Amino acid sequence: MWHVGKVIALHGETATARTITLDVADWPGHVAGQHVDVRLTAPDGYSAVRSYSIASGPNSEGRVELTVERLSNGEVSPYLTQELAVGERLELRGPIGGWFVWRTHQTEPIQLIAGGSGIVPLMAMIRARASAGSAAPFRLLYSVREPAAVFYRDELQALTDNDEGVSLTYAYTRAAPKDWPQPPGRIDAALIANATLPSNLVPTCYVCGTTSCVESAAGLLIGSGHNPDKIRTERFGPTGDRK
Amino acid sequence: MAIISKGFSGRRTAGDEKLPPGQYITPDFPVLSAGPTPHVPLDQWEFTIDDGASVLRRWDWKSFLDLPTETFTVDIHCVTRWSKFGTAWEGVSLDTLFADVKTDASYALVHSYGGYTTNLPLEDLLNKQAWIAFKYENEDLAPEHGGPARLLVPHLYLWKSAKWVHGITLMNQDKPGFWERLGYHNYGDPWREQRYWGD
């Protein structure tokens, strides 16, 4: 069952990533963390489909936002990030996935770890928390290449400034802002110890990023005492257009 | 009628009869799993076949490696739409593992270290269609790809090829596994595009 979404807004997140806001008339609703399949069809009938995480929280208005990172060798993402215009229509299927999701009735502490564009489904969870008025403590560790690669910067800042329930730590892998306390580098055990919820709070952990990022972060969480059953992962490989 | 995106041309791999509908070819080997990668020490590894009440067959790593192995080259298809052609593996055929197993069961629930499960008809595991693989491209199977050993059922979408495989429970009635309960198709034939519930 494919839905038709009309592009009602486009917003550049970074030099290579763009948020697409779709109005989907018959959207059945979604849960934070789910994804959609997007189908593009060329004038001669050739079509290609890729999966993208939903960035928007659950809503009743048929509003679906996707943030798509352009992959230089991608088949679908270059079109979505460079060609697609407001007013165009896209076919989408979903929502898909019932595991890497946060539901508003979850009251336990939540640890989110994002690598790069892995922030997208986690942002949906943060937005779902805010719109539901949830009091579940959220903590986000957001690893990015450099400051200019951050998605949703202002919104994250506002959420963390105004709501004591969400705290945010950035980790920079290639280039940090001036005067940043740590040299650039991957998430390590010290950062996990200092910037994530301790295992004795028994948080549910959601980790999303590239395979190497997820392997490393999930391993560090286990090493610091988290039960593997409490760690949910979503990975995107070198080829998938996912996220 | 499909929605046409005028500026979209795409990258075609048209006319390849080995590519199921809706898939694209990748030279890479992406990783998809729902949780952390379990690391199973070989001296604790075991593989069992049970009928829900009792264990029918059991192997430890050493006795498993003593079984006759096969090398095989197959195409694999992930529900996330990538396909990879010509992957070379070494493993033990399920026909070998089931050689002395007498059962009337029609279904199997495969379970893994880390808690993953997937279900399939028993007949899809037999007749040279499935292996427990422990080498990929002549190397020990890496943990993120399911090592020390994973199921490989290449004629179904790859989520049926359970990583970190631990055992198989035989059942008279079908019972959905992990992804099958969470929205993915119960059978998962790539040639019929059985990706999600309702396909």
Description:
The complex is a heterodimer of chains A (243) and B (199). Chain A has helices at residues 77-83, 119-132, 153-162, 189-195, 211-223, and strands at residues 3-12, 17-24, 35-41, 47-53, 63-69, 89-96, 110-115, 138-144, 166-172, 204-210, 231-236. Chain A is built from five helices and eleven strands. The two termini of chain A are 22 Å apart. In chain A, strand 8 (138-144), helix 3 (153-162) and strand 9 (166-172) form a beta-alpha-beta unit. In chain A, 21% of the residues lie in helices and 33% in strands. Chain A has 243 residues and is an alpha/beta fold. Chain A has two domains: 3-96, Translation factors (Elongation Factor Tu (Ef-tu), domain 3, Beta Barrel); 110-236, Nucleotide-binding domain of ferredoxin-NADP reductase (FNR) module (Rossmann fold, 3-Layer(aba) Sandwich). In chain A, the strands form two sheets. Chain A has a six-stranded antiparallel β-sheet with strand order 4-3-6-1-2-5. In chain A, strands 9-8-7-10-11 form a five-stranded parallel β-sheet, with helices on both faces. Chain B is mainly beta. Chain B has one domain: Sulfite Oxidase, Chain A, domain 2, CATH 3.90.420.10. In chain B, 7% of the residues lie in helices and 31% in strands. The longest helix of chain B is centred in the first third of the chain and has 5 residues, at 61-65.
What is the topology?
The complex is a heterodimer of chains A (about 240) and B (about 200).
Chain A lengths: L2 E10 L4 E8 L10 E7 L5 E7 L9 E7 L7 H7 L5 E8 L13 E6 L3 H14 L5 E7 L8 H10 L3 E7 L16 H7 L8 E7 H13 L7 E6 L7
Parallel strand pairs in A: 7-8, 7-10, 8-9, 10-11
Antiparallel strand pairs in A: 1-2, 1-6, 2-5, 3-4, 3-6
Chain B lengths: L23 E2 L20 E5 L4 E6 H5 L4 E8 L4 E12 H4 L9 E6 L4 E5 L9 E6 L2 E2 L9 E3 L12 E7 L6 H4 L18
Parallel strand pairs in B: 1-5, 2-11
Antiparallel strand pairs in B: 2-3, 4-5, 5-8, 6-7, 6-11, 8-9, 8-10
